Amino acid sequence: FFFPVSSGNPDETVARDIEGNEIKKEDFIKTRKPGTRELVQGPKGDPHYLIISEDGELRPYSLDAVCTHLGCVVPWEAGENQFICHCHGSHYDSTGKVVRGPAPLSLALAHVDVNENGNIVLKTWKEKDFRTDSDPWWK
Ligand code: FES
């Protein structure tokens, strides 16, 4: 369980590692392999996945790891190239879009940005969900 830590802006959360430390973008990228999905503390204290693309860049969105069925944390299964919930078997593709139920909705998105200290921040995603072209259900 993570405690939410506010940056002063309710729409912005400094990402923190399991020990509560802020995460420098440069360090994060340098020390992870392409294709990495790693859990950090994000908005509302929810665990969020930061993603390093195959080209070694940090993706500009994170995924809330809380399953939209009944709230289990969904692990990344690299061999399947999917997030697969072990509680009741829901599948989400590599962008977090639900592809098999019982989960009714895709994993929630947050913007990934960097603050003035070079630390990763997650910001509320208010725009359309690019995976479904619909308004975000998590707003
Ligand atoms: Fe994930 Fe039920 S909590 S499938």
From TrEMBL:
<keyword id="KW-0560">Oxidoreductase</keyword>
<dbReference type="GO" id="GO:0009496">
    <property type="term" value="F:plastoquinol--plastocyanin reductase activity"/>
</dbReference>
<keyword id="KW-0472">Membrane</keyword>
<protein>
    <recommendedName>
        <fullName>plastoquinol--plastocyanin reductase</fullName>
        <ecNumber>7.1.1.6</ecNumber>
    </recommendedName>
</protein>
<keyword id="KW-0812">Transmembrane</keyword>
<keyword id="KW-1133">Transmembrane helix</keyword>
<keyword id="KW-0479">Metal-binding</keyword>
<dbReference type="GO" id="GO:0051537">
    <property type="term" value="F:2 iron, 2 sulfur cluster binding"/>
</dbReference>
<keyword id="KW-0408">Iron</keyword>
<dbReference type="GO" id="GO:0046872">
    <property type="term" value="F:metal ion binding"/>
</dbReference>
<feature type="domain" description="Rieske">
    <location>
        <begin position="45"/>
        <end position="121"/>
    </location>
</feature>
<dbReference type="GO" id="GO:0016020">
    <property type="term" value="C:membrane"/>
</dbReference>
<keyword id="KW-0001">2Fe-2S</keyword>
<keyword id="KW-0411">Iron-sulfur</keyword>
<keyword id="KW-1015">Disulfide bond</keyword>
<keyword id="KW-0813">Transport</keyword>
<comment type="similarity">
    <text>Belongs to the Rieske iron-sulfur protein family.</text>
</comment>
<keyword id="KW-0249">Electron transport</keyword>
<keyword id="KW-1278">Translocase</keyword>
